[in-house]
Amino acid sequence: MKKLFARAFLFLCAFGTSAVVFAQEVAVADVGFHQALKTKFIEGSADFMSLVAITLVLGLAFCLERIIYLNLADIDPSKLLKGIEDALDKGDVEGAKAIARDTRGPIASIAYQGLMRLDQGVDIVEKSIVSYGGVQSGLLEKNLSWVTLFIAMAPSLGFLGTVVGMVMSFDRIEQVGDISPTVVAGGMKVALITTIFGLIVALVLQVFYNYLLSKLEGILNKMEDASISLVDAAIKYYVKFRK
Predict the structure, then answer these.
(1) CA atoms of 130 and 85, how far apart (whole Å)
(2) Is 30 left (phi over 0), alpha (psi -120 to 50) or beta?
(3) Model confidence over 86-145: pLDDT tens digits?
(4) DSSP 141
(5) How far apart are CA 237 and CA 41, in angstroms?
(6) Where in the chain are the domains?
């Protein structure tokens, strides 16, 4: 939890610094950052910009949920495995189960499922660890598909706004019968602003998604190493107490 809060604090500091720098760059004629953002949002057509904003909010919500879940699931398995191995070395199966049951995270859950079937043989224990490992992997990957969906949707909605803005420009040209810059400027502005915001949303969500993937890969590697250690501990238990 301390690592989670430390990372969140560093992220908020970096985000705050970036926001200040961006606000200073966009502030023109004493116009504040929020006012400038609101103006661009309205100029980009509220219909399409609202869809892009909803995509950002939902994408960040899923990212935050996964960040919290994965950080809580990411524990150092060495203490858990040592406790289980020491208990099994003494023949204390119930003590090993208690250690696994009282520890959070997917590795502890896998260990507990394997220990529950310790009296059925090493092969059953290994199959149980592999099968339940697949279940835990699915839980770790849950909702990541929604993040990829919003990453794809954000620029698509921006490009849709671009097409609509171009159509608006041609409609104006048709009505006025002139192709001067003032006639097409409004539609072109809608096209460019929606595209920019859609790409920004996709980039932000992509950064979070890559972080989630790296976190997930690290946890899966720990699960694989722990599974091998658990099977080895079960074999040692059978050799020592089930000859």
Answers:
(1) 19
(2) left
(3) 888 888 889 989 999 888 889 999 999 998 988 888 888 889 998 898 999 999 998 899
(4) T
(5) 66
(6) 44-243
